[in-house]
Fold:
Amino acid sequence: MSMHHPTPITEGQLTRREMLARSGLGMGLLGLTGVMAGEGLLAEPAQAAGTGALALKPSHFAGKARRVVHLFMNGGPSQVDTFDPKPALDKHHGQPLPSSLRTERKTGAAMRSPFKFARYGQSGIEVSELFAKTAAHIDDMLVVRSMHADVPNHEPSLLLMNCGDGRLPRPSVGSWITYGLGSENQNLPGFIALCPGGYPVVATQNWRSAFLPGVYQGTHIDTKHTEIDKLIENIRNDQLSLEAQRRQLDLVQRMNQKHAAERSADPRLESRIESFELAYRMQSEASDAFDITREPQHIRDQYGEGLQGRQLLITRRLLERGVRFVQVWSGAGQPWDNHDNLEAEHRKLAGEWDAPIAAFLADLKQHGMLDSTLVLWGGEFGRTPVAELPNLSGRDHNHYGFTMWLAGGGIRGGQTYGATDDFGFAAIENKVHVHDLHATMLHLLGLDHTRLTYRYAGRDFRLTDVHGRVIPEWLA
Amino acid sequence: MGRSMRRSLLLLLMLLASAAFAPPLRAGDAISTEHADFFERRIRPLLLRACGDCHGDIAEPQGGLKLISREAVLKGGDSGPAAVPGAAGKSLLIAAVRYEGPEMPPDGKRLSDEEIQRLTEWVERGLPWPEATAETLASAKTLAEDERIAAAQKSHWSLQPVTDPPRPAVSDTAWPKTGVDWFVLAELDKHKLAPSPAANRRTLLRRLSFDLVGLPPTPAELDAFIADPAPDALPRAVERMLASPHYGERWARHWLDVARYADTKGYVLFQDANFPWAYTYRDYVIRAFNEDLPYDRFIVEQLAADLLPLGNDRRPLTAMGFLTLGSGFMNNQHDVVDDRIDVVTRGLLGLTVTCARCHDHKFDPIPTRDYYSLYGVLASSTEPTIPPLFEDPPQTEAYAAFAKELAEREKKLDEYLARKHAELVAGARTRVAEYLLAGQAQLGKPPTQDFMLLAEPEDLNPTMIIRYQLFLERTDRDRDPVWAVWHALAAIPEEQLSTSAGAKLEQLLSAAEQPVNQLVAGAFLGKQVASHQDIARAYADLLLAASKLPPAASGTDLAALQAAFTHPDAPAALSREQIGVLELLPDRKSQGERNELLTAVEKWRAEGAAAPPRAMVLQELSQPVEPRVFVRGNPTNLGEQVPRRFLRVLSDERTAPFVSGSGRLELAQRIADRDNPLTARVLVNRVWLAHFGTPLVSTPSDFGTRSEPPSHPQLLDYLASGFMRNGWSLKWLHREIVLSATYQQASADREDALRADPENRLYWRMNRRRLDFETLRDSLLAASGRLDERIGGTPLADVAATDATRRTIYGKIDRLNLPGLYRTFDFPHPDATSPERSQTTVPQQALFFMNHPLVREAAGSFWSRPDVAAMADEQQKVAALFCAALGRAPADDETAWALEFVHAAGDTAWQQLAQAVLSTNEFLFID
Structure:
């Protein structure tokens, strides 16, 4: 049997075909009158079916998750200091391990975790003090302790985690998902990457759309800023009030309708007419989505005053408005890359994240959104259980074994999956490659990773290339 | 399930029955030469080609059936034995290929009658299957590939020679204006559709102007054209536009999409991410279009200008940016070469050759071996650290000082790298004992070259360890007499060495099948070996001693010892060109030292006082790469050697390798050859796409077997053959297209035609087209009277800045940080060659018109134009605005709306009005 791919879409032809197939003739103008009649519907994701590239598309099968948030601990958090306790390290502290794997830099003897672990929840899963507040949700969390990737270097590992290939220009997970499902809100980008203060390593490649149309690329938002016009390009007119803009837009649309009437139905003309109405509304809606001062004080208190709290509160507001994929980065560069001084650095970073994550999970639950929101936490890899030479105060990169956790969105929580060796160096039991993670994420969204394809340069590409398997034990 | 169980039972019975009478050939019978020959030439290639993908020597063959030996055929798969020797009628294999029962090969790839007959004869002969040797397998693979290629050459439309089709009969001989129209009308006739009436003159001139120069016509040009009664008014207007230097700017941009043009490398390690002179390639392309450089010459210059006799005008060297300004791929040289193969094959030939990097192309007749033939060509050239000048530098003191400083900085860098290389190669000899032990420890582990590990300065070089590892694997496999002792002893665990080494050695020396180098044997005889270290030490002493003697006569044992350091495959015989900088310098310290020296060179060559621009060329390696297939794309898993040569599917003399240097010039000439069936067709289709908004072949960079055939095959050939006959002239092609009645049709929809052909594949009207990002921004500048019309030069930092007034093609394209505006308006990402731009409509585009300072600036400055600023009359002002923005006067109701708006809109009313008009669909869509 040869492989069959349903409805491959040829490069470049997406919108032309889609437009003809989906919008039908005349729908744009109908849509417009509907839009004009229905003011104040802005926070309703339901209005969104839309036309064009971001229109809602059916999944392959019913999936529990409808949206994804990826908390990206870039730089690589240490598993043995967070979610994968290794008492054997205490015993061997300061001694060479029986077998030590080669990582990027030279490493020395075993280094015990300076952090205390305790059991949490019904499930009794052990978590370090760094994430004590997050651990309050442990019964909703699936802790995967047997992740592994390909190489111990940031660049290829980031690309593997984000795009499914360590080297070649491939679309990111968020782009694939937005391409596969469309967006539930046409007034906001379908895929948003929040990263304060600049870019992570390999920059925009982390959220690129590569050969998929540019509309699927992640929109980067520098959450260091708090003013809305710095968050989204062209979102505000600093000279005209909304009323004045409305008057101007009415004139544009008057001319557009006259122009369209003289040309019979051209869906592209109608689409553009509609896009101006969407843009007009987006000015309010996007501002609203990023304006966390509209949250009740007690909610803001739970998230805290810090940057990560603000990022996560914005994230919840975006998810609530139907944004498909939000990636939240720890910061520019590689904050978790603690080759030295790990104890203090990890304590500081986890301190920024722990309470906001706990608040975020509680808030999603409170809003009834956790079941349909897949939350993913982790770095591009983990860290060695041995100390790095010559300072012996930090850990090197480790792709042989590391931990990620998932929650919500059809995940069976309250369990650990897989295990590393006695020292937490390499995954040995139920190993999960990044491709398997991707396959399972798509599955939770109702997408078959072997069928989500895009034809480009003579072949049908997939996020998981020829790899990946869905892990049934993860599914609720 | 039930069915196949029954079938295997049946087959089993048949097999038992057939065993009763002696088959013509049975296991163990000697195979006659005639049988063997028949199998090798007629059957093995066929099985390989037609069945190998699913039933070859693979881990999970389909249905459990492997057609890889006589035993495997007899054993069969889930459905039982595949064949009964001597009984074709009872053989499942024969039933399957006849499509009687299971249909194999599936999906309509049915074998020819002749092939079925061949297989039948083979079964009747009793399944003779001589044991495969490397040689017979290789030759079967070649035959199988050749068959597959020949079949495609015979049947696939795009591989047929370009024809010069005669004009077809049409219903209305008065309609056609150029050759194009006959072919278009003939198709319309077939579908009983009539063409649309011609567009009016205003629409036509706007269409032509945006199309050919990418700018709106001036009101004066419009008025003159509309008022011109001469029959040649249109051709004259077209000539004027084709002669405009702005024509080159417009059409260069189309080509830059194909060339994945960018001004930076993207994410790279340890080097400057900027291409300081990418713009020289962009300017070359603009000039090539303006001067109507023949396209065949354009191709050859882009691939091999460095190998052409250029005479005094060395500007064509800048053409090679086509190859060199791709993405940096984090310094992975294999990916860089892959990107170059991709831009050459998809860009120029419409073939997706890079699919064959890891395995034979799944659909097209492009075997992996052909990929590596091209790999050998493109990997045999490299970018010089100091690219050449293409214009004579000024003979000034400032330049002389610049050149002297540059030479000094370059020398320091060169000396550093030469020293490091010399140290590495010397270390490969002096530290051979350590390398041997390290290589031995690596045996059996997959060598991973992508691993960017950091070493300490005193460590062994990881790449050299891999070379020793591969060397040991090879000498073991080849039973190299020098290394026989090594492989016998090194396999013994250390603690047993002192007790069992002696016996093992004696056993080895007495075994006849393994020759042993006598000098090595002598060194070990009677020697106490207690550790692997001892073995390595003994080898090291021997090799180093041998290397100090003069070269011995070939064939002697001494020569064999010396070869361990000097043979081209020896780890220590590593040339500087064979090793990348990161591999040469695996430790932080030396990387830092080199980067400092390199930065000094790069900074000076680009920014030093009086630094001239340079051409981004490639230059040939002194010794071209002899390519080997990378098995499954893994560069450390070397397969068979292949010649540097052209794709076999585009060759008649299939096996002729390139003879001159890397073969890059020959490659260019083969692509630009008039007999190449793809080159002209691909280009003509791209130009058609740019003129009409839809291509004749729907996948412009993929003319392979999965592409849809052209909508108008004869038209495509008419244009392709005419294009070549007319000196590969782009301007000829433009004239042929834009002077056609087809192109001049109105774009209005017609109910009847829309129903019959909603996508206008038949061209019953002109397509309405949307301005792309460049034309959109250029038109905003033109309408506001602020366009800076200078041609060429260094890139603009930010085209979105309000004070940036040059055309958009001059904007800096940063691969790593493509401004959001580009993405919003469907600019193709320059990571790879782009076949066609996608067209999306998203609210972010509308936000640009509503809120971006660039639009506001254009709207405001329109009113400062001297011709407009003088106007006092409001109606006159509105009319001027419509003329500038839309190329027409306003209708009465539009004037009324505009004035009504102005009177209500406050201080900035006129600016707001201009912004509104620039935001209309009419501004963006060209009828």
Notes: Chain A is about 30% helix and 15% strand. The first strand of chain A starts at residue 67 and ends at 72. The CA atoms of residues 157 and 380 of chain A lie 5 Å apart.
